Amino acid sequence: MSSAETGGVRACKQTFPPCFLFLLALTDLLKRAAPTSAETVSYGHPQRLRYTLDNDLLTPEQRLFYEENGFLLIRNLVSKQDIDRFRGEFERICRQEIKVPGLVVMRDVAIAKSEFVPDQRAVSKVQDFQEDPELFRYCSLPKILKYVECFIGPNIMAMHTMLINKPPDAGKKTSRHPMHQDLHYFPFRPVDRIVCAWTAMETVNRQNGCLVVLPGSHKGTLQEHDYPEWEGGVNKMYHGVRDYDPEHPRVHLEMEKGDTVFFHPLLIHGSGMNQTQGFRKAISCHYASGDCYYIDVKGTTQENIEKEVKEIIVRRHAVGDELTFKDTWAIRGRLVQGERISM
């Protein structure tokens, strides 16, 4: 929340009780609420907010901010000690000192094979670290889960895990991440019971490519994604929204080590180039409610990502077409709290 927003809240509190302010804002939100897709399931009674659940953790102002903007930044949530442990494990993986089943190691498209060295300089991202006990510890941190529960409820599945090591741009602008919606990659619903936790592992700013979000875009629908036609190339699986309003207001999320942002899977976001000489690290997990369900994406805008994922799986693991898009997610999903009901 910006200083202007915070100041506005303080000014209102001097005139009205907090509960009155909350009810006024809630009434306004409910008048403007609209479904994001035909697949969205309505939860609760009409008087409840749509994107957050009733509990005693989030303040009324925080709930309303997420409802309106689709993201919520919590400062200093993850300890420096935990961040340093995650960094150490990542470096051991990059040095090939440990092998993690199912882990995917990715490199920036601008890094030539001839430049390969067995350390973090050659790795732009590791994902699917659910079989690494140390990195997966991030996904089950109580301080993270208590916030996740505010968005998706008590049955919590960790579905997609990543540690991003955005490299210094090699001059071809390939360190950019196109504006996208995370739901494009997920064959499960309902959309409002999915949330991402994204934690900065060091100072993240506009110079090294912080997250850029379009506030309020989570109220829209899932849009068509594909590879952008960029000079210099685009990293594998980095699809972008084909058509969004370039005039839409945007926010650059500058963060410090341990700061964590939670955001909705329809929120349009991306990141700019890393224009520094260092690597910009962040660790994240996408969570879904244990009672979410899988859908068939054939005939939808997600069909292209389904095809690409299956081609990669077949090539890497020599399996047949019997493996479905749903299977690739069900295998990776891990229960971290409550019950695994239909995931």
TrEMBL record:
Pathway of action: Lipid metabolism; fatty acid metabolism
InterPro entries found in the cross-reference section: PhyH (IPR047128), Phytyl_CoA_dOase-like (IPR008775)
SUPFAM superfamilies membership: Clavaminate synthase-like (SSF51197)
Swiss-Prot/TrEMBL catalytic activity: hexanoyl-CoA + 2-oxoglutarate + O2 = 2-hydroxyhexanoyl-CoA + succinate + CO2; octadecanoyl-CoA + 2-oxoglutarate + O2 = 2-hydroxyoctadecanoyl-CoA + succinate + CO2; dodecanoyl-CoA + 2-oxoglutarate + O2 = 2-hydroxydodecanoyl-CoA + succinate + CO2; butanoyl-CoA + 2-oxoglutarate + O2 = 2-hydroxybutanoyl-CoA + succinate + CO2
GO CC field: peroxisome
Region forming the signal peptide: 1-38
Pfam families assigned: PhyH
Keyword tRNA-binding: no
Domain of life: Eukaryota
GO biological process terms held by the UniProt record: fatty acid alpha-oxidation
Keywords (A to Z) from UniProt: Dioxygenase, Iron, Metal-binding, Oxidoreductase, Signal, Vitamin C
EC top class named in words: oxidoreductase
GO terms, molecular function: L-ascorbic acid binding; metal ion binding; phytanoyl-CoA dioxygenase activity
Recorded family membership: Belongs to the PhyH family.
Protein name: Phytanoyl-CoA dioxygenase, peroxisomal
Species: Astatotilapia calliptera
Gene: PHYH
